[in-house]
Amino acid sequence: MTTTGFDYALTRTLQAPVQQVWAAWTHADEYGQWANAEDVVLDVRPGGAWSSVMVIPGGTRVPLSGRYVEVVENKRLVIGMSVPGREEMALMNVDLAADGDHTRIALSQTFDSAEERDQSKFGSNMLLDGLTAFLAAA
User: Fold this and answer.
1) pLDDT at 138 (0 to 100)
2) Alpha carbons within 13 A on the beta-carbon side of 35
3) 3-state percent helix, strand, coil for the chain, nearest multiple of 5
4) Checking CA distances to 86, which of 32, 79, 115, 120 falls within 20 to 30 Å?
5) How many CB atoms lie within 10 A of CB 66?
6) Element of type H or E holding 81
7) Which segments of 35-74 does DSSP mark as H helices, in order?
8) Contact 21/13 with Cβ under 8 angstroms?
């Protein structure tokens, strides 16, 4: 696990209860809708595998996979993603906190380079935008 380097943290308040946000991250059918992903498989438990094919703007399909490192229901996911050319998984922390009828969500990651960080931060903002829209339409 990378502990030093280039990191980012994004925080938003979502207009949905924490249980609804948790379900959006942990149920394959919901995740596929807001993350713009196909062929989603989520085994949400420590050591459980996940995979999906992200469809990015322009139609490019990007296969992704990894393992869950930490799972604390309605509070925290640490999601590892396999990265070509790296032995260690890239880890994303997803922290949830109930705030009345809303949920504060924080995404954070650390990388070896500014370029990796910037690409991932861009992708994470896209994820949060999709999640926000999905929850608003629910």
Assistant:
1) 85
2) 24
3) 30, 45, 30
4) 32
5) 19
6) strand 76-81
7) none
8) no
- pTM, two decimal places: 0.91
Q: How is residue 40 written in tokens?
A: 């989603």
Let me know how long the chain is. 138
**pLDDT over 80 (residue 3):** no
* pLDDT, tens digit, 9 for 90 and up, residues 80-119: 999 777 888 999 999 999 999 999 999 999 988 899 899 9
Contact between 103 and 13 under an 8 Å Cβ cutoff? The reply is yes
Compute CA distances 7 → 2, 19, 40, 65, 114, whole Å: 10, 28, 27, 21, 8
Q: Which residues pair with 109 in a beta bridge?
A: 8
Q: What are the angstrom distances between the C-alpha of 81 and each of 25, 84, 134?
A: 15, 10, 23
Q: What is the rounded distance in angstroms from the CA atom of residue 95 to the CA atom of residue 99? A: 13
Quick one: how far is CA 31 from the chain centroid?
Answer: 9
Which helix (H) or strand (E) segment holds residue 40: the answer is strand 37-42
Band of pLDDT at residue 21, cut at 50, 70 and 90: very high
